[in-house]
Structures are given as structure tokens and as C-alpha cells.
Amino acid sequence: MVLSYLFGEQKSDAFVNPFSTQLSVLRNAERELVEYAERFVTSASSNVNDLFDVQVLDTSIPKSAVYGSMSEKSSSRCTKKEQNCQVYSSSVDDDHYVMHAIKVKRRGGSTKGAHVKNTAPVVIQHGYCNAGIFFYRNLFGLSEKLHSGEVYALDMLGWGLSSRPKFLVDENFEETGNDKLTRKQREMNEVRSAEHFFTESLEQWRKAQGIEKMTLAGHSMGGYLSVAYAEKYPHRVERLILVSPAGVPHVDEKEEKEKWSKIPLTYRIMFGTFRGLWRAGITPGSFMRTVMSEYRGKNFVNSYVDKRLPAIDVEDEKVALADYMYVNNILPGSGEYVLNYVLRPGANARDALVHRIPHLKVSKVSFLYGKSDWMDIEGGLEVQQKSENILKEGKEAPEIDVYRVGQAGHLLMLENWFEFNTGFLKSAGGDVADNYPQPERIHHSTYEHERRLF
Predict the structure, then answer these.
(1) How far is it, in rounded angstroms, from Cα 396 to Cα 387?
(2) How far is CA 60 from the centre of its chain?
């Protein structure tokens, strides 16, 4: 497959990037995975090259928009000692960052007709430590059946082949008028500041692409951050699709401590160590960069792909995905440091989405979970119940659908791509044939609680 590359404005005085070798591996792995994507098209009657246009987009966004009130604290120039300020750069004097994305567009344009309800393009935000290419098994199938025919798989700022600037947060992000902030006020300011890094970079990217309104989808951490974007820019979101999103349930800290006090000592020690690392800002990526040798790091990732993703049974495909995962995590850290600012240990949000989603000014929100997902589907069902209660009062709230994809866990888009695509298309208002594998539609009124270990 021939990919076309579109770049944002570049400068001629480019510096020699110290990470050029790793970035080359990342680009090659991405290219290989896009080529494997040809295998996951439901219509086998035509050549993929005749059906779709595929572009790799590198879009410039203004640096000042990302940091907001902290722009003076952030370096306007990346010195040699601060190369990790912008991995994907064309010059040390850049005033912009680069957002990377894969765009797949069905030839022939959007679907016409009275039955068409949604022609907004789909924009997908990936999960933690992932990248847009993790949806390679879905891009063509979604583009084929969406009424818009247009899908963007975005590398969020700080991950993949997007720029990796310093991740800064500001405890004074929102002025309160008080000289002394409470601990809770500082915590919420840091949450909003961390969210701003992603919401504003997405908004600048949207403007640069000329997208008026989109169906916004997000997986895991990308789901959490998609909600934050929809809160601030609801007029830019046609529908919201949350794929096993992080941070949905509200967890009472006192109840959580009591629950953990009753589990076996071995688990308490393990979780205590985990909490300490989390609070210290130690991320999976930073652990891999500082503790693991290249040999151990690659073996760890290869073992993860083998055990975690048995659905990927083609050796070359596994190698390409493992290469991408490894390099994505050993490049300088950036977006990964959002983790302990928005989530507590155990992946519970500091500002739970269960209280935020029912008040979104978006007409339709859909949840997709895997049957064996470690993210709890009951979070999505609680949102559904809250929204229905608000609607019964005659007030505005989103319509909520919840789907569960069989034979899949947290990485459902890779583990069961066909059924995932069906659920996604139903959520986006696309065309779904009756003979497609159907995800289970769940409603809170008929759901039977399933006991979880923790």
C-alpha cells in the first residue's frame, strides 16, 4: 500500500534529532501495521487501494495554546539539554508542536440519503502508553461503513509520533480569589491543568484540519480525555464513543481503604508498593527506560503481546506491534505523566466521570467494553441510569448506550475487531449488516451484578 504523507509547516534549520533511529523504527512499524490493516476489511470484492485513500498527517499546532497560563514557564526554545522537550521537531527554534495522525477516507465521499443521521468524521484518541495505530485493525472497516467514510486515528500530544513536550501542571490553573488554596482546590487545579494539555492540543489540531464537528472516540485514558474535551467544546462533538474508558466510577476513599484492609497481606504489600510508585510519578514508560535493559525491555513487550493478545497470531504482525510498543515507551516521557494527576492508584479518577458525563451537552454517548475487561462495565451503566433519571425530570442529558464485546478484554479493538467494529458503527450511526457479529447491548435495569476480585 502506498501512503501519502502531509506535513505541517517545516523550517529549514533542522537540528539532528538524537532519537532519529528510534523514530525511524516507530515509523516503519506503523507503516507495516497499516499494511496489515488491509486484512481487516469486510468487503473482499474490491482491492483496498481502490476503496480507500490513506494519509499520514503531521499537523503543526501552536505551542502557546498547549501551556496556556504556563507559557512563560515552558521553554520557547528547546536547548540541547532539553531535547526531550520536542522529540518530533524540525528546529530548536520551533514555536509549534506536531500532532501525528493516520487518516483513512472511503473513496466516493459521504453517504447521501434521508436515512443518514451522522456524516461527521470520526476522530479516535488512543489509550495510555498506546498510539493511534493501535486501531489498525479497525480503520478500513469503520471507514467503509461510516456515513462520513472518514476516520482519523490520532497520536495524542506526548505519545506515538506526535511531539513530546514537557508535561507541566499548574496548581493555580483556575483562580479562586483566595491567597491560600485548600488541598482539594490544588488537586482539582492540577486535574484541570493536566486535562488542558490534551483538550487544547486536540482543539488546535481540529482547527488545523478544518473539522467543524466530529464523532469523538477515546479508548481508556483517551476516553477520559475525550470527555474532558466534550465538556469544554460540546458544539464540536456530534457523538461521543467511550471504549473501556478510564476514570468512570466514583470510589469513596474511606470505603476503598476498608476494602483493602480485608484482603490478604501479600496483595496489600504489592498494592502498597504500587501506590508508592504511582504517587512518585513512576510510569510504566519511565520504569522501562531507567530500570530495564534493551534486552529485558523487548522481551517484556514480546511476552506481553504473546500472552495478552493471542488473537494476533501472525508472527510478522506481532513483531511490528511489539516493536511499536517498545519504542513508543522508551522515547522520552511526556503525555504519560498525566497518569497520577487525573487518576489515583487503582485507576480511580480524582474527578470521576460518572458525575460529569450525564451533564454533557452532547446528544448521544456510547460505551463499549470487553466481556473480560478489567474496566468495570458498571461504571457505564451507572452513567446510563443517572442520565435517564435526569431525562425523566425533563432536563437535558445525553442518551446512553452500553455495549459489551465478546471474547475480548481491555484491548477489544484488537482482540475482537469485527464485533468491536459493529458496536462502534452502531454507536456512530453507521451501516451494520444483520449478519455481522453483534455485541451485547446492556441496560442497567436488567444487568446482573458480577463479583470482581478487587
Answers:
(1) 9
(2) 20
> CA of 391: how far to CAs of 30, 378, 388, 398, in Å?
44, 20, 5, 8
User: Contact, 75 vs 22, CB < 8 A?
Assistant: no
Best CA proximity match to 192, nearest among 220, 170, 223, 164: 170
Beta bridge partners of 155: 100
Residue 169, SS3? coil
266: Cβ–Cβ under 8 A, 6 or more apart, which residues?
Answer: none
Q: Are 248 and 377 in contact (CB under 8 A)?
A: no
pTM (predicted TM-score): 0.90
Coil, strand or helix at 231: helix
CA distance 72 to 76: 8
Alpha-carbon distances of 299 from 284, 322, 325, 328, 410, rounded to whole Å: 15, 9, 12, 15, 22
What per-residue confidence (pLDDT) applies to 411? 98
Work out the pLDDT band at 320, boundaries 50, 70, 90: very high
- The DSSP line for 175-216 is --S-SS--HHHHHHHHHHHHHHHHHHHHHHHHHHHT-SSEEE
Total Cβ atoms within 10 A of residue 15: 15
Banded model confidence at residue 217, pLDDT cuts 50, 70, 90: very high
Give dist(CA 173, CA 192) in Å, integer.
Answer: 7
**CA-based nearest residue to 336, from 159, 201, 197:** 159
Determine the average pLDDT of the residues in 273-286: 71
**What does the pLDDT read at residue 276?**
66
